[in-house]
């Protein structure tokens, strides 16, 4: 357990020998058709089971389990809190009122801006992983990586006309504003139920997405700047992410116009791009990227929110020794010399079958290809979001 | 009308959630819920929801100071209790990942199962139990005992009998000696959170006596664990204990059904 605690964000390196790593790398880097250890296609995800609204004591909850037994439960709780206005915000409000007095149209827009902007700190995320304290590097890094796109994503609610049904002005932050003096505080608690068998980011992100879709807030009865007063009928509660009647025939019932972001884990191995990598695949990856996407309501296509590189554990693996440098086999190595090749993705000279730890770094073209695969119409991102929409919520 | 047991119960003889004094809350349980562990269970007693998973018996970790010496005669039981932030009514912020309540539940569970399981069969090994409390509505310790028992059965760890826990309370403060002629206090079975905060209660866990000694009176009456945090006059203890032990017997039948039902599937 102590060893795990010291492990960095790229933790959980499986104990694979250099020869095994080299074998894995070679099969994953086969041009065009990588062969994955579990036989999936490069864009295929692991099968998972999901359910929502499992905990009656929360505003929204979800459980997702991968077939390998890793499970995560997310519970979302909301509390009403008094907004503390800083000096800056106060003076800004005064300025707006002043501006309102002077110019009608411009001032009106300014006041609206002031009342709909929330703060990112109103969303708190806490991840618990067995064997880790919640202030260890991995949980803190993961939660920040998931919270950031969540609060920063402002979907184009304002573009296609404000007050539009199903729109969400100002993104999640704006949705949390009740009035100028009160706001919602959202606590997102993520519970990983078993030791992480692979990098847990995709699992946690999918579960959080579902839990947020299922989250309901009580219906507000008070108006304007009154102290908030809520309808005590839970059946009247409104979804945090408003939903509208569907226009697509493939999905029954109501769909969400604005959706929380999803963070996908993508790795590149030589020229190949592999989605939802298992632990062994991450161990040989050239780069590991966490890509956050969401639907852009304005143009109804996917939008990139953030890309983060994750420290690839392949950096820390043991290298193997080519025969030419091996003292034990010195002299019988003439044949092996000829097979030195240039790795297309890193530009380093390599002997085939000899494992070299990756030094990090990735070509811009590769990143561009990854992003394109996620974002394009009918691409992986759309497939994932549609799959999650299929999970019955509420 | 005030919503507390000590004023409403004498009038209606019904508790806040509508139960009578000797009624358990609805118990739902499943075993083998998590394929990644040796044994796992899900248990819901009313609104108290618990997930439990067991790893082991497995070789203890090396480099652990206690691992080598302590486990030489039998397996060491480790218990880790995690109360989720969203478990209570209000979201609780805990510093450093553990608090007093979860620590107490963990140490009680550890000592209960360390002596209950046949640990001598697995020298130099560790049985680690992970309990996640998803929703807390009273009788946490009792529900955790039941969930752990189910998970340990699923993991195939030998034990003399099912260890079943239950709580019992008195329907008033019970701080004066019991008057046998004019007794208006009733014992209450399986307390919920509002009752737990208001009334004196105890948690008891019983197991069946070792097979072989087939003494019918002794059956079901082996108390393996008994804790009480609140204050009560000693004359009431016997009543509470009797009700608690009877509750354990009912719970044992339910858990037995769960185990048998899941093996038929």
Automatic annotation (TrEMBL), chain A:
Residues 32-56, 97-117 are annotated as: Disordered. The keyword ATP-binding does not apply. One of its GO terms (cellular component) is ribosome. It is found in: Cytoplasm; Nucleus, Nucleolus. Its main location: cytoplasm. InterPro entries: Exosome_comp_Rrp42_subfam, PNPase/RNase_PH_dom_sf, Ribosomal_Su5_D2-typ_SF. It comes from the Eukaryota. Keywords: Cytoplasm, Exosome, Ribonucleoprotein, Ribosomal protein. Gene3D superfamilies: GHMP Kinase, N-terminal domain. Belongs to the RNase PH family. This is Ribosomal RNA-processing protein 42. It comes from Aspergillus cavernicola.
Automatic annotation (TrEMBL), chain B:
GO terms for molecular function: endonuclease activity. Keywords: Endonuclease, Hydrolase, Nuclease. It comes from the Eukaryota. CDD domains: RNase_PH_RRP41 (cd11370). Residues 23-158 form the Exoribonuclease phosphorolytic domain. Coiled coil: none annotated. Pfam families: RNase_PH. Belongs to the RNase PH family. This is Exosome complex endonuclease 1/ribosomal RNA processing protein.
């Amino acid at each position: 357990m102590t060893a795990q605690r010291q492990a960095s964000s790229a933790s959980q390196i499986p104990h694979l020998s250099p020869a095994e790593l080299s074998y894995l790398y070679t099969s994953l880097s086969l041009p065009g058709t990588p062969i994955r250890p579990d036989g999936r296609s490069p864009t295929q995800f692991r099968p998972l089971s999901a359910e929502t609204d499992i905990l009656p004591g929360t505003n929204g909850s979800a459980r997702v389990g991968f077939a390998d037994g890793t499970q995560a439960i997310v519970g979302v709780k909301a509390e009403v809190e008094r907004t503390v206005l800083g000096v800056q915000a106060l003076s800004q409000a005064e300025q707006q009122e002043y501006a309102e007095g002077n110019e009608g149209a411009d001032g009106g827009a300014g006041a609206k801006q002031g009342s709909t902007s929330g703060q990112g700190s109103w969303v708190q995320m806490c991840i618990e992983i067995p064997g880790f304290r919640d202030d260890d590097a991995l949980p803190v890094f993961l939660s920040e990586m998931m919270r950031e796109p969540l609060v920063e994503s402002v979907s184009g609610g304002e573009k296609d006309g404000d007050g539009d049904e199903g729109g969400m002005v100002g993104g999640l932050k704006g949705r949390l504003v009740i009035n100028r003096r009160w706001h919602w505080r959202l606590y997102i608690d993520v519970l990983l139920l078993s030791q992480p068998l692979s990098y847990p980011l995709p699992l946690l992100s999918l579960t959080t997405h579902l839990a947020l879709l299922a989250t309901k807030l009580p219906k507000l009865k008070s108006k304007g700047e009154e102290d908030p007063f809520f309808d005590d009928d839970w059946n009247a509660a409104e979804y945090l992410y408003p939903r509208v009647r569907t226009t697509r025939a493939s999905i029954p019932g109501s769909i969400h116009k604005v959706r929380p972001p999803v963070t996908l884990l993508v790795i590149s191995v030589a020229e190949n791009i592999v989605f939802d990598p298992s632990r062994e695949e991450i161990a040989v990856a050239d780069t590991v990227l966490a890509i956050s996407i969401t639907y852009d309501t304005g143009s109804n296509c996917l939008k990139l929110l953030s890309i983060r590189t994750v420290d690839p554990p392949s950096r820390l693996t043991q290298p193997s020794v080519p025969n030419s440098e091996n003292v034990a086999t010195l002299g019988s190595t003439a044949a092996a010399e000829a097979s030195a090749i240039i790795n297309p993705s890193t530009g380093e000279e390599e002997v085939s079958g000899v494992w070299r730890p990756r030094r990090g770094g990735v070509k811009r073209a590769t990143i561009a290809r990854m992003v394109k695969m996620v974002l394009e119409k009918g691409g992986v991102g759309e497939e994932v979001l549609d799959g999650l929409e299929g999970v019955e919520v509420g | 009308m005030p919503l507390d047991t000590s004023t409403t119960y004498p009038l209606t003889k019904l508790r806040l959630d509508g139960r009578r004094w000797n009624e358990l809350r609805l118990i739902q349980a499943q075993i083998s819920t998590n394929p990644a562990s040796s044994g796992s269970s899900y248990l819901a007693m009313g609104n108290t929801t618990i997930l439990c998973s067991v790893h082991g018996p497995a070789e203890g970790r090396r480099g652990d100071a206690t691992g080598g010496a302590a486990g030489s005669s039998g397996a060491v039981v480790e218990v880790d209790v995690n109360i989720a932030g969203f478990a209570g009514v209000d979201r609780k912020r805990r510093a450093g990942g553990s608090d007093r309540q979860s620590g107490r539940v963990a140490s009680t569970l550890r000592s209960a199962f360390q002596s209950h399981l046949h640990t001598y069969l697995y020298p130099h090994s560790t049985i680690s139990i992970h309990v996640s409390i998803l929703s807390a509505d009273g009788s946490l310790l009792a529900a955790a005992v039941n969930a752990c028992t189910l998970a340990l059965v699923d993991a195939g760890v030998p034990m003399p009998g099912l260890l079943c826990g239950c709580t019992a309370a008195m329907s008033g403060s019970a701080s004066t000696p019991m008057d046998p002629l004019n007794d208006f206090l009733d014992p209450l079975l399986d307390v919920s959170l509002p009752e737990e905060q208001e009334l004196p209660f105890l948690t008891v866990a019983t197991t069946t006596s070792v097979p072989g000694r087939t003494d019918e009176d002794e059956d079901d009456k082996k108390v393996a664990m008994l804790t009480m945090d609140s204050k009560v006059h000693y004359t009431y203890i016997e009543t509470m204990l009797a009700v608690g032990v009877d509750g354990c017997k009912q719970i044992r039948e339910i858990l037995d059904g769960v185990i048998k039902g899941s093996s038929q599937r």
